[in-house]
């Protein structure tokens, strides 16, 4: 989608620090990391966010979640643990309107949120 930041990263128009890629999914490091390991998992197909997921996206959702666990292994946080977050809408402070999951790890997290 034109003017979508993550579509531009998927298309290679903006550089991304890619960790994992397959035919449906791209994973790259967040530009403003909030944890020692902070990676974004995005579908190559443009979807605004979680609210856009229909039955037709079931396989894509499986691929996104599998990519998250693959990224956890690649970054060495699968054993210590990690958090998977997707912000949806204004109350969640979603700032990029292309579906994405944050993989956060590499440090002990608080039991708040969540
Ligand atoms: P969210 O607030 O959940 O919509 O998260 C959007 C994330 O995207 C935020 O953590 C910062 C990250 N981000 C914004 N612009 C860029 C960029 O140009 N490159 C990368 N790698 N990450 C970006």
Description:
This protein is 20% helix and 22% strand. The chain has 114 residues and is an alpha+beta fold. It has a single domain, classed as HIT family, subunit A. The chain has a 5-stranded antiparallel β-sheet with strand order 1-2-3-5-4, with helices on one face. The chain starts with a helix and ends in a 9-residue tail after the last strand. The mean pLDDT is 97. It binds 2'-deoxyguanosine-5'-monophosphate. The site of 2'-deoxyguanosine-5'-monophosphate has 13 residues, from strand 2.
Kindly estimate the percentage of residues that lie in beta strands according to DSSP: 15-25%
How many domains, in number, for the residues? 1
CATH level 3 topology = HIT family, subunit A
Radius of gyration: 14 Å
The overall strand count is 5
- Ranges with pLDDT <50 over ≥5 residues? none
| Neighbour order of strands in the largest sheet | 1-2-3-5-4
In CATH terms, what is the architecture?
2-Layer Sandwich
Task: Encode the helix/strand succession as letters.
Answer: HEEEHEE
Number of separate helices: 2
CATH-level-4 superfamily name: HIT-like
Helix content: 10-25%
- The shape, in one word, is globular
Query: How far is the first residue's CA from the last residue's CA?
Result: 32 Å
The CATH first-level class comes to Alpha Beta
Assembly form of the protein: single chain
* Largest sheet, strands/sense/barrel: 5 strands, antiparallel
Bound molecules: 2'-deoxyguanosine-5'-monophosphate
């Amino acid at each position: 989608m034109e003017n979508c930041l993550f579509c531009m990263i998927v298309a290679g128009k903006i550089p991304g620090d890619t960790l994992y890629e397959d035919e449906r999914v791209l994973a790259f490091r967040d530009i403003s990391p909030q944890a020692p390991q902070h990676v974004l998992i995005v579908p190559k197909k443009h979807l605004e966010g979680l609210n856009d997921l229909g039955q037709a996206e079931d396989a894509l959702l499986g691929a996104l979640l599998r990519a998250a666990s693959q990224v956890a292994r690649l970054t060495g946080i699968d054993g210590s643990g990690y958090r998977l977050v997707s912000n949806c809408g204004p109350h969640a402070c979603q700032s990029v309107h292309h579906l994405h999951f944050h993989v956060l790890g590499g440090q002990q997290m608080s039991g708040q949120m969540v």
